[in-house]
Write a structure and sequence with these properties.
The protein is an alpha/beta fold. It has three domains: 34 residues; 275 residues, NAD(P)-binding Rossmann-like Domain (Rossmann fold, 3-Layer(aba) Sandwich), CATH 3.40.50; 40 residues. Helix content is 55%, strand content 10%. The chain has a seven-stranded parallel beta sheet, with helices on both faces. Strand 2, helix 4 and strand 3 form a beta-alpha-beta unit. The chain is globular.
């Protein structure tokens, strides 16, 4: 009887513990959803104004979107930060640099680069190092999305997307690595001595999303390479903080600039989920807080997308079915409609031309 009573008590304790675990998990989920992020980043407080004082940020893809938003946010919310802004369009970078200075930044440099030209990146990295003597934070942000079915996209476009969205990040990291190696001060946190890499990834780096096959491949690769790299650097005693940002729909031109069937043709319009997405300034504020706290990975996305991310994490089979039905349906349908319109126009043109040829031939025969 005593033994049975002990078993009953033990089961009751296990049941209570399980209930508390479920309640705690649900509470964390609700907090995360309310604040548009994973629980860790949702409860991370904003760094103080002097958190990045004298820190050198090198931001790629700084001419628009998240890169530009990060530069402007740093300029207006943090004291003494030094900025290196990079992208292909020098004239646009100059405009962004001017905005940063108006917001309070005093040290802003512009450095033009092409992320698809890997051969040039090591020399560009050396030039970046020469501007302020070092780079404390590398923001790997430049990139391009896709809006085309894999079967319609040439292999050259797949390679181009991988080159820009992933391999350029690897190339720049390796180019800066010699300047980061050596003994570090006590305390391996972002605010002191350890260099930091912030990578702009995406929900597409965690799940497969239709009409984004090449984009998904590149973003998945970012997580694999940099997660392993972070561990390696710790093992050899040269720690580097790496924060991979899993970004959901944000109000940028990522869809308009997305590639379709080649590396020179773009989608030209936005998606409904992008238009209703998060504000870039809100996103970069959360990113900076997560990086300062040393988070290895952070999520920031609209609630519906965030919920699907949690499903992917804990019930992947169910999540795949949901993604297959609901994921980016707007873009898929738009591409189908566009393809149908083009095909219809071609058919009509061909039919008109055929009738004209027949009439001309008939007249020739009559004469």
């Amino acid at each position: 009887m005593i033994f049975q009573a002990q078993i009953t008590d033990a089961l009751a304790i296990i049941g209570l513990a399980s209930s508390l675990l479920v309640v705690t998990s649900m509470a964390k989920l609700l907090i995360a959803l309310k604040r548009h992020g994973d629980f860790g980043s949702a409860i991370t407080s904003r760094p103080p104004r002097d958190a990045y004082k004298s820190k050198v940020f090198w931001i790629t893809g700084a001419s628009s979107g998240i890169g530009q938003a990060l530069a402007l946010h740093l300029s207006s919310n943090y004291d003494g930060v030094k900025l290196i802004l990079s992208a292909r369009r020098r004239d646009v970078l100059d405009e962004v640099a001017s905005k940063c200075k108006k917001l309070g930044a005093t040290d802003v440099k512009v450095l033009q680069l092409d992320l698809a030209d890997h051969a040039s990146l090591p020399s560009v990295a050396n030039e970046a190092l020469s501007l302020f003597g070092r780079v404390d934070v590398l923001m790997n942000n430049g990139g391009v999305s896709t809006r085309s079915f894999a079967r319609n996209m040439g292999f050259g476009t797949d390679k181009f997307v991988m080159d820009v969205n992933c391999l350029s990040y690897v190339c720049l990291t390796k180019a800066l690595l010699p300047s980061w190696e050596g003994p570090v001060k006590e305390g391996h946190d972002f605010g002191r001595s350890v260099p930091t890499i912030i990578n702009t990834s995406s929900i597409a780096g965690k799940v497969g999303a239709p009409v984004r096959t090449a984009y998904c491949a590149a973003k998945h690769a970012i997580h694999g390479w940099f997660d392993a790299f972070r561990i390696e650097q710790g093992l050899i005693g040269d720690p580097i903080n790496v924060t991979n940002v899993v970004l959901g729909s944000t109000k940028t031109d990522v869809a308009r600039n997305a590639l379709t069937t080649s590396s020179t043709t773009t989608f030209g319009s936005s998606d409904a989920n992008i238009e209703n997405g998060l504000e870039p300034d809100f996103v970069v504020g959360r990113v900076l807080a997560a990086a300062y706290a040393g988070q290895a990975e952070m999520w920031v996305a609209p609630r519906k997308e965030l919920l699907l991310l949690y499903l992917t994490q804990y019930v992947p089979t169910t999540a795949r079915k949901v993604w297959a039905k609901a994921g980016v349906q707007y873009a898929v349908e738009k591409i189908r409609r566009t393809s149908f319109t083009v095909a219809t126009a071609v058919r009509r043109t061909s039919f008109t031309a055929t009738k004209a040829i027949r009439r001309a031939s008939f007249k020739c025969v009559e004469s």
